[in-house]
User: Fold this.
Amino acid sequence: MEYILNIETATKNCSVALAKGGKNILCKEIAEEGYSHAERLHVFIEEVIKEAEISMNDLSAIAVSQGPGSYTGLRIGVSAAKGLCFALGIPLIAIDTLQTLACQAEVESGLIIPMIDARRMEVYSSVFTSAFEKKREVLAEIITEDSFSELKETLYFVGDCADKCKEVLTKENYSFLEGIKYPSAKEMCSLSYKKFKTNDFVDVAYFEPYYLKDFMITPSKK
Assistant:
């Protein structure tokens, strides 16, 4: 069975999961306010490989979270994934970050709205069915009381935006699922395996993360 290393660094959660045949067998992750991805990521990769008692040469592919999310976090994850693919001569798989987040919600019906905080009242969001099929493209949008009002199904919101959105999104068919805050590499395992089986790879040389918004550098206030 194929081993795929899954890397998720799009948010505050630095997460690495090793999958065998699409099943997660080992995961190392930590969510910290300070974004310690640069220090943690390669340590986690080494740890999962060592604990699984395999070598890097046993990997069949690398999967990486493609965004949207933190500019710095995405750059760190994609750079690491590309480096491994070049060194090992194996393919790169890109996984939708919001789909990974949505896959943590286990609901029988209705729609899942994964959201990633984009500061102030803006979020990165998408819409998925209860079977995790994408129903609406990814958007960067300002949340108002009318957001998602065109959707009449029961809506289940997941992500790190609950605190700022609960007071605005108050319709009867809106429900916030507690405990699902950040995407994890664990949920990438089945998604990356499906893409691996269909040879759905991205170009290692030219692939870029899906930032959704241009990266802005602001001058220091000092």
